[in-house]
Amino acid sequence: MKYIGVFFLISLLCKSQNTDLRLLQSINAKNYPTWDEAMKGVSFSVYPAMPVTVGGIWINGYLKKDYELKRNAFKSASSIGLALAVASGLKYVVNRTRPYNDYPNEIIKRDDAGPYSFPSGHTTAAFSTATALSLTYKKWEVIVPSILYAGFVGYSRMRLGMHYPSDVLGGAVIGVGSGFLVWRLDKIIRKTQSSKKSKELSP
Fold first, then answer.
1. Contacts of 98 (CB under 8 A, 6+ apart)
2. For 198, what's the count of Cα atoms within 13 Å in the CB-facing half-sphere?
3. What is the CATH number of the domain that holds 177?
4. What is the DSSP string of the chain?
5. How confident is the model at residue 2 (pLDDT cuts 50, 70, 90)?
């Protein structure tokens, strides 16, 4: 019976891998030089987007003398840092090679990157940044463009042949999850501090 279960699991993983590859092929197919150069720019944009986002939130808080915004800048930096640390660690744990290495005759390589594929670091950075912005301002005019931008970064990584769709999905989950985790921990810390302060002040 256990062998049937193992066979079923292997079959499921193979089917998932085939779906992953087919979807990537449809996104990565054919050469469009102008579009592909633009996708390199979209991918690269996450590097300045992270410090600009954190710095922008802090400066906004400083100018408005808003303690919450400045605290949110610290939480944003923490959540982005956590997301990138988790993603970097997973790359070496999972050890998944790039799709253009696995399928050199089927996937077009349009950029350069390290040897490991899962999860997508660029997508992780984009979604953690978008989540930090969304949790800070909580306005649809901030949330929608932020998430669309993060999704576009994920698309660019597939278009460039750097990642499977599952790599991008993994990066998105880590990015969003890290943001909500840091905000949740901050809420718990503040509640604990408030409770402790109340006890100290009570007669």
1. 109, 113, 115, 116, 117, 161, 162, 163
2. 6
3. 1.10.606.20
4. -HHHHHHHHHHHHHHHHHHHHHHHHHHH-S--HHHHHHHHHHHHTHHHHHHHHHHHHHHHHHHTT-HHHHHHHHHHHHHHHHHHHHHHHHHHHH-PBPHHHH-TTTS---S---SB-SS-HHHHHHHHHHHHHHHHH--HHHHHHHHHHHHHHHHHHHHTTS--HHHHHHHHHHHHHHHHHHHHHHHHHHHHHHHHHHHHH--
5. very low
Q: Say if 24 falls within a structural domain.
A: no
Q: Return mean pLDDT, the chain.
A: 88
* Calpha distance 41→60 (Å, rounded): 27
How many independent structural domains does the chain possess? 1
**Residue at token pair 């930090």:** 132
In this predicted structure, the answer to whether residue 49 has a pLDDT above a threshold of 70 is yes
Average pLDDT over residues 55-65: 95
27: in domain: no
Q: Which amino acid is at 42?
A: V
Distance of CA 181 to the CA centre of its chain: 14
For the segment 19-44, what is each residue's pLDDT rounded down to a tens digit? 889 999 999 999 999 999 999 999 99
Instruction: Look up the domain containing 167 and give its range.
Output: 33-201
Question: Is 3 inside a domain boundary?
Answer: no
- Token digits of residue 67: 């303690």
